[in-house]
Design goal:
The chain has helices at 2-6, 44-50, 52-63, 95-104, 128-145, and strands spanning 16-20, 40-43, 68-73, 110-116. By secondary structure, the chain is α/β, with parallel strands linked by helices. The chain has one domain (2-145): Ureohydrolase domain (Arginase, Chain A, 3-Layer(aba) Sandwich), CATH 3.40.800.10. Strands 1-2 form a two-stranded parallel ribbon. The protein has a two-stranded parallel sheet with strand order 3-4. Helix 3 packs across helix 4 (95-104) and helix 4 (95-104) packs parallel to helix 5 (128-145). The longest helix has 18 residues, at 128-145. The mean pLDDT is 87.
Amino acid sequence: MTELADEGCLDLSRSVQLGIRVLGDEAPEGELYPATSDAVVIGADECLDEGPLAAAARVREVVGDAPVYLTFDADFLDASVAPACHTPCVCGPDTYWTKRFFRAVRGLNVVGADVNELCPQYEPPLGPTQLALGHVAFWTLRLMEQVPGCVSG
């Protein structure tokens, strides 16, 4: 992320990292990302404590009307929902939380997106991670379809 910012491709002051969590005990304040980063970090505990509507409101506040590239990592979701990802971790949001978040950010100027971190070799076809990420991809496409000025056919 910092390389993109250094090359002028990404404005960190309009960037949000949502749902970051660490294994084990809580990370000391400010140690998830360097203090020099302008990116807004909303940790998993805050996401879960405050809820998806509050997280969506914070994202809207930060990105405003700017074009948005949305990237969704499977490991954002709790390992009970998405076990077949690169770094499964417990104590994360579930798909209901995620669906409510996506609904609450409708109208953002989403111009591109990706869904990643799936490791399909860790579960059978149509396993829970694949099912969850299929829905996330659908919700993401719906956001892009609803961008003002977007022609859907």
